[in-house]
Design brief:
The complex is a heterodimer of chains A (519) and B (276). In chain A, 30% of the residues lie in helices and 21% in strands. The longest helix of chain A has 18 residues, at 462-479. Chain A is built from 16 helices and 21 strands. Chain A has 3 domains: 14-29 and 183-265 and 491-517, D-Maltodextrin-Binding Protein, domain 2, CATH 3.40.190.10; 51-172, Dipeptide-binding Protein, Domain 1 (Dipeptide-binding Protein, domain 1, Alpha-Beta Complex); 268-488, Dipeptide-binding Protein, Domain 3 (Dipeptide-binding Protein, domain 3, Roll). In chain A, the strands form 6 sheets. A 6-stranded mixed sheet of chain A has the order 14-18-13-17-15-16. A 4-stranded mixed sheet of chain A has the order 1-10-9-8. In chain A, strands 4-5-7-6 form a 4-stranded antiparallel sheet, covered by helices on one side. With 519 residues, chain A is an alpha+beta fold. Chain B has one domain: MetI-like fold. Chain B contains 11 helices and no strands. Chain B has helices spanning 2-9, 11-33, 66-102, 104-119, 122-133, 137-148, 150-163, 167-174, 179-215, 226-234, 242-275. Classes of the chains: A alpha+beta (519), B mainly alpha (276). The A-B interface holds A 224, 227, 244, 246-247, 249-250, 299, 303-304, 364, 367, 371, 373-375, 377-378, 381, 388-391, 393 and B 37, 39-41, 45, 61-63, 131, 134-135, 217-218, 221-222, 234-240.
Chain lengths: 519, 276
């Protein structure tokens, strides 16, 4: 109770600066190091402590603004990339930040250990450090700078060399949960099941920042609890749709509370139906097209997402204007066409009106993915496909779909991260070993798509590479290795005394240096 | 006949019987009143109750008819309750009779097994069983029966211990009947009435366990149950509380009905005994 009474006192004393911000957090990641685990759950807390080389931005050139790097440039042959680093930056323990930290992070952490860095920095060979504030990345094979640039906000969290050097197993180091960074906030305390406490970094490199004295991430695993806590002013902010969509209409009318739907453009989630191509029926393109025709995307957007989503046309979302093309085959909601395609494919209805049976595994991660599973079962039954829903917990779902391939259809929330080569091409590319989550585990093999992905990875010219990805979208939409249904961002709900909310495309996972509380 | 009359003469017996008859009627007639799949999307989403004649109890998040769900849910709840209780009573009575009649080492061994099952709380046992084997209606029934058969087993054994000393059992032994035949044909039928009285309590707890499993997402997702309806409604508890309240009311009526019925039944039976 004392902890909830204190911030209002503090706020009354100090006008624009200072104060304690209490934020709802729905998970406590096992490894909190964003250089190793580049996922939104980790970034949400750690991005305030550990900074990337560059952050996403609404206004900046190429959608970026500088953080630890002040400029970046790729060579024309794609074999090197040069970063000029910010001067006068110190780690939270007082040690100066230098290019050696960047070289160490890139070679010892991002490339060998990080889930996304493994792909992006696959061909990284060395990092040269001619002086303390220059890092030159050397690649063994040409690597498109467009990809590196687009990936910077997600893959380039810099960790301190002096903290991790000499560790036998960096991934298991205790330092991963006692973060030392250069960011606007210092990691002070974690009480499991209760809260994370971050304290203002007095020596932050940006003048006048950060604004607030303290950020508390209060662990509230029950999504329904966040709305109540906001109304009671026990917390001031809930991001990542912690307040359920169904509560938004009601809570937006509550005095003193604001709802923001901006600030997630750089981390678009996609609702997709994963298809197991090992099933004879599903290996037939006509059947997949029929399923696409049987799904009413408008219903999904309006009823399941209550309008906080957009219908998809393909594998790259609309809010990725650099790559997106609308010029792809589309599949309108049309049951007659779906039935005709299924008849054509040779799967006639039997006496009970059933063509064939299959098993449907909805991902348990979001209410919306589970509800879409229920909807999809109905949609399939309206065209004579009898689907049995199999519910699993997170661990069992990952094992069943991505390791054992024990599914026919699965509902997957995939994430588009600024460049198709980061986490999107892997959804259809062949050759990924079993066990890699959110990758092509449906046994889909299409040499044309594989070649296209390969070619895009070797193409240095930005316009040409972009064009290749447009062709890629057309091929995927035509052959439907997976069916994209909708794409959504999250919603932030905050008390209206919280300022500077949702002001960049990855806002919830950015550093919050400028977040402020006004009385 | 006199038992039934006495049952209907007690207020709790009458109330319980009416409640159960209504539920049974709803469950039996569900496929006739609502022939389409209760999980199918029938209308606009989140329609409040009593606003549209086509959906008297409103619709849920996806536009599914709540009344259809409620009626079909009664079917699932009663089916699971009765099936689980039947399995539990049959297995329990058999094990109890054999243990009580055989005595000695067999008795010891069987009763230690019963102890082992009784140590684990029945809900935890069901939870563990379902999460290991995967959810389906049969699995849920077995899981519930697994935690419920020990009560009937103990009760049957206690009855058998007294019955086996009776004269007619001794007589059966003398004429050379096979021990198994004596146990099953002479002893078991007389040990059964108190075990059957226990069964209504088992039905009630089975209905609740099934609802709890569904609520936690461990029920069969392809059928409607009251527990899954409550779990679904929980997401919109603040804006559409009726989605949780209506199936919750169904549960209350069922469990209350079963308890009142068994209360009335035991009164009726004991009344008959005293007048005799």
């Amino acid at each position: 109770m004392a902890s909830t009474a204190m911030p209002s006192l503090l706020m009354a004393q100090e006008a624009a600066n200072g104060g304690r911000l209490i934020v709802a957090s729905d998970s406590e990641p096992r490894n909190l190091n964003p250089a190793i685990v580049a996922s939104n759950g980790v970034f949400f807390i750690s991005s305030k402590v550990i900074e990337p080389l560059a952050e996403a931005s609404f206004e900046g050139e190429n959608g970026l603004e500088p953080r630890l790097a002040i400029s970046w440039e790729g060579s024309d042959d794609g074999l090197s990339a040069t970063f000029k680093l910010r001067e006068g930056v110190t780690w939270h323990d007082g040690t100066p930040f230098t290019s050696a930290d960047v070289a160490f992070s890139a070679l010892e952490v991002w490339k060998p250990l990080q889930n996304l860095g493994r792909l992006v920095f696959e061909n990284l060979e060395a990092v040269e450090t001619p002086d303390d504030h220059t890092a030159i990345f050397k690649f063994s094979k040409p690597t498109p700078f467009q990809l590196i640039r687009n990936a910077l906000p997600v893959v380039s969290s810099v960790v301190a060399r002096h903290v991790f050097e000499g560790e036998a197993d960096i991934a298991a180091s205790p330092a991963n949960n006692r973060l030392v960074g250069t960011g606007p906030f210092k990691f002070t305390e974690h009480r499991p099941g209760e809260y994370y406490r971050l304290e203002r970094n007095e020596d932050y490199w940006a003048e006048g920042l950060p604004k607030v004295d303290e950020i508390i991430f209060r662990v509230l695993p029950d999504r329904a609890a966040a709305a109540g806590a906001l109304e009671a002013d026990e917390i001031q902010l809930a991001a990542f749709s912690q307040v359920p969509l169904t509560d938004l209409e009601r809570i937006s009318k509550v005095e003193g509370i604001k709802v923001y739907s901006k600030g997630y453009e750089g981390l678009t989630y996609q609702l997709a139906v994963d298809v197991n191509h090992r099933r004879k029926e599903l290996a037939d393109r006509k059947v997949r097209q029929a399923i696409a025709h049987a799904i009413d995307k408008d219903f999904v957007v309006k009823t399941i997402f209550l309008g906080y989503a957009a219908p998809s046309t393909g594998i790259i979302p609309k809010n990725a204007p650099e790559f997106y093309t609308a010029d792809v085959p589309t599949y309108d909601f049309d049951l007659d066409k779906a039935n005709a395609l299924l008849d054509e494919a040779g799967y006639a209805k039997d006496a009970n009106g059933i063509r064939f049976k299959l098993r449907l595994l909805p991902a348990p991660y979001f209410t919306e993915t589970r509800q879409f599973g229920d909807y999809l079962r109905q949609a399939l039954s309206s065209v004579g496909i009898d689907a049995t829903v199999v519910n699993n917990d997170s661990a069992a779902h990952q094992k069943a779909v991505y390791t054992d391939h024990d599914f026919d259809l699965a509902v997957a929330p995939t994430v588009y991260r600024n460049d198709p080569a980061i986490s999107t091409t892997i959804l259809v590319k062949s050759g990924t070993p079993a066990g890699v989550p959110f990758s092509n585990q449906g046994g889909y093999v299409n040499p044309r798509i594989d070649q296209l992905i390969e070619k895009a990875n070797e193409t240095m010219d930005v316009a040409e590479r972009t064009e290749l990805f447009k062709e890629f979208q057309r091929l995927v939409a035509e052959d439907l290795p997976l069916i994209n249904v909708a794409e959504w961002g999250f919603i932030t709900v905050a008390r209206d005394d919280v300022r500077n909310v949702s002001n960049n495309p990855r806002w919830a996972v950015s550093n919050w240096a400028d977040i402020a509380l006004t009385p | 006949m006199t038992v039934l009359k006495r049952l209907l003469r007690t207020p709790e017996g009458l109330a319980g019987t009416i409640m159960l008859c209504l539920l049974a009627l709803a469950a039996l007639l569900a496929p006739i009143i609502f022939p389409s799949d209760p999980l199918s999307i029938a209308g606009p989403a989140l329609l409040p109750p009593f606003t549209d004649a086509a959906f008297p109890l409103g619709t849920d998040r996806l536009g599914r008819d709540v009344l259809a769900g409620l009626v079909h849910g009664a079917r699932a709840s009663l089916a699971v309750g009765i099936a689980a209780a039947a399995v539990a009573v049959i297995v329990g009575a058999l094990v109890g009779t054999i243990a009580g009649f055989a005595g000695g080492l067999v008795d010891e061994a069987l009763m230690r097994i019963v102890d082992a099952f009784q140590i684990v709380p029945s809900f935890l046992l069901a939870l563990a069983f379902v999460s290991v084997t995967g959810a389906s209606l049969t699995v849920v029934i077995i899981a519930i029966a697994l935690g419920a058969w020990t009560g009937p087993a103990r009760l049957a054994r206690a009855e058998v211990l007294s019955i086996r000393e009776r004269d007619y059992v001794a007589a059966a032994r003398v004429i050379g009947m096979h021990p198994l035949e004596i146990a099953l044909r002479q002893v078991l039928p007389h040990a059964l009435p108190p075990v059957l009285a226990l069964s209504s309590v088992i039905v009630a707890s089975a209905v609740l366990i099934e609802a709890a499993l569904s609520f936690l997402g461990l029920g069969d997702p392809n059928i409607v149950t009251w527990g899954s309806m409550i779990a679904e409604g929980r997401n919109v508890l603040r804006s559409a509380p009726f989605l949780s309240i209506i199936p919750g009311f169904g549960l209350v009526v069922t469990v209350l009905g079963v308890y009142l019925f068994s209360e009335g039944l035991s009164d009726a039976i004991s009344a008959r005994k005293t007048t005799n």
